[in-house]
Amino acid sequence: MTALVLLDAEDGTIPQTSRSAIAAATSLGDIDVLVTGGADTIAAAAASAAKIPGIRKVRTASGEAFAHGLAEPLAALLVALAPDYDHIVAAATAIGKSALPRAAALLDVQVIPDVMDIKDSETFVRPIFAGNVLVTLHSSDAKKLLTIRTASFDPVAAEGGTAPIEAVTPPDDQQKSRFVSAEHSSTERPQLEAARVIVSGGRGLQSAEGFKILEPLADRLGAAIGASRVAVDSGFVPNDYQVGQTGKIVAPDLYIACGISGAIQHLAGMKDSKVIVAINKDEEAPIFQVADYGLVGDLFQIVPALTAALG
Amino acid sequence: MKILVPIKRVVDYNVKVRVRRDGGGVETAGVKMSMNPFDEIAVEEALRLREKGVASEILTVSIGVPQAADTLRTALAMGADRAILVQSEESPEPLAVAKILKILVDREKPDLVILGKQAIDDDMNATGQMLAGLLDWPQATFASRVEKTADGLAVTREIDGGSETLSLALPAIVTADLRLNEPRYAALPNIMKARKKPLETIAAADLGVDLTRRLTILSMAEPPARKAGIKLGSVAELVEKLRNEAKVI
């Protein structure tokens, strides 16, 4: 059997989330990867992909239609390549979640999102009800299209391979959607999905100004900064900080939840963390039911004290 | 412009679901059911487009058990003009739902379909994209802002590294994310009025779509529960535990 893994390579690099998707696909037979992007990034992206060990070949498609991960041309490309593959796999990122279901419909296949375990080539485990239930599913479709919950799979190595690179000719793009502009949150910190430590804040931070109290602690720990839905809705931080059922799903070694009550929708995004610390003034907050270590008190005193104690 | 808003009846977001003893499903007896929260946002966005003079008619549709009519009445009370219930014994998979919606789109000819980005029961996040594929329409998922432009729609989307704006030709599919708007509550007089709004019922079987599940549920289980840990008395104690017990710093 052969699997095709769509990589998120639009910026010319291969993110950790894509390497987790490759890790998930390793039990499905030979692996080809598909790298797409604009004419200016494709060579660098393909070269990075070729270094990933265990890849049979790197297939590339480039051009304006692929520069921004638009779902329509990506889905059309996946459909064109589908006859060569038994499984088509992508990380459950914004691009994978948009393109794979579209391609699946065109192939008359029911897409299987957020796969967290692969039992065999036809049997998959995924979370439902905000991760409160795990369902094991058998797919009767001839071809399987999966997105991967990346927190559930350790990424494959970035270096060590020498896979051949082959350009493919994509179907003509009908240009029914067009990229206009992007606003990327700029940060020097690690990405949430790739961070070993995450410092996360919620309603208890009270304001965008208050939220900044987490920065020295995150700096000290080399951590990414996350947030609850309330903190994002209240405008303390941008939307891409959100951890939870509808935000990012993370599983770092250490998750420090500051002023987060612990709604089930938030827990859905972080409860697989190895160690959870909760700092909250409400000792009845549900976050303490999943936290390994809890501190009850004023986070505006505790967080700076913790930063100082770490030296 | 005519807008179609598909909605789903789901277990209310405040309910902590339990797996049935036989492992074949979750307990729904006596459990509160509501409109999927993302679908409420989709309905609200359609209403706002009508209030801005962009939309003229809002049609809402639900596919599922007879009680989904209650969910449609909620959308009508919020302000949708009419509703269609496609009745089926259970909730079909997104592919089958998309096929049913395609038939309704071909019949009703909307210019825009707005859906919630995912249902909070099966968390599939697929129906909008699948419908867009079947119709060969452009799509903008995870929308946080929708604006009518001279030649179509400008949609701002929440993506992994921030946000981006796409321009879509119409007809198009948009899926609603959390921050698109805050849905209104239906006022009591509108709830009364909604009872008189047209609600058509169609049997899913009459549409000729094969509803056979492609994904067979082998088992359901609750994930291993995390044990509540310990509350500590001081920051110094926390640092000591993280260093010497958990060994994560």
From TrEMBL, chain A:
Q: Where is the Electron transfer flavoprotein alpha/beta-subunit N-terminal domain?
A: 3-183
Cofactor dependence: FAD
GO MF terms here are:
electron transfer activity; flavin adenine dinucleotide binding
Report the protein name in the record: Electron transfer flavoprotein subunit alpha
Q: Which GO terms describe its biological process?
A: fatty acid beta-oxidation using acyl-CoA dehydrogenase
Q: What keywords does the record list, in alphabetical order?
A: Electron transport, FAD, Flavoprotein, Transport
Q: Does the keyword Ribosomal protein apply?
A: no
Annotated region described as Disordered, given as residue ranges: 162-185
Q: Name one Pfam family in it.
A: ETF
Give the cofactor binding note: Binds 1 FAD per dimer.
Q: Which residues bind FAD?
A: 203, 228-229, 242-246, 259-266, 280
Question: InterPro entries annotated for this entry?
Answer: DHS-like_NAD/FAD-binding_dom, ETF_a/b_N, ETF_a/FixB, ETF_alpha_N, ETF_asu_C, ETF_asu_C_CS, Rossmann-like_a/b/a_fold
What family does the database annotate? Answer: Belongs to the ETF alpha-subunit/FixB family.
Purpose of the protein: The electron transfer flavoprotein serves as a specific electron acceptor for other dehydrogenases. It transfers the electrons to the main respiratory chain via ETF-ubiquinone oxidoreductase (ETF dehydrogenase).
From TrEMBL, chain B:
Membrane-crossing ranges are none
The name of this protein is Electron transfer flavoprotein subunit beta
Q: Where is the Electron transfer flavoprotein alpha/beta-subunit N-terminal domain?
A: 23-211
- Per the UniProt entry, the signal peptide is none
- What one GO molecular function would you report for this record? electron transfer activity
CDD domains of this UniProt entry? ETF_beta (cd01714)
Listed cofactors = AMP
The species this protein belongs to is Gluconacetobacter asukensis
Among InterPro entries, the record links this protein to: ET-Flavoprotein_bsu_CS, ETF_a/b_N, ETF_b, ETF_beta_N, Rossmann-like_a/b/a_fold
PROSITE patterns for this protein: ETF_BETA
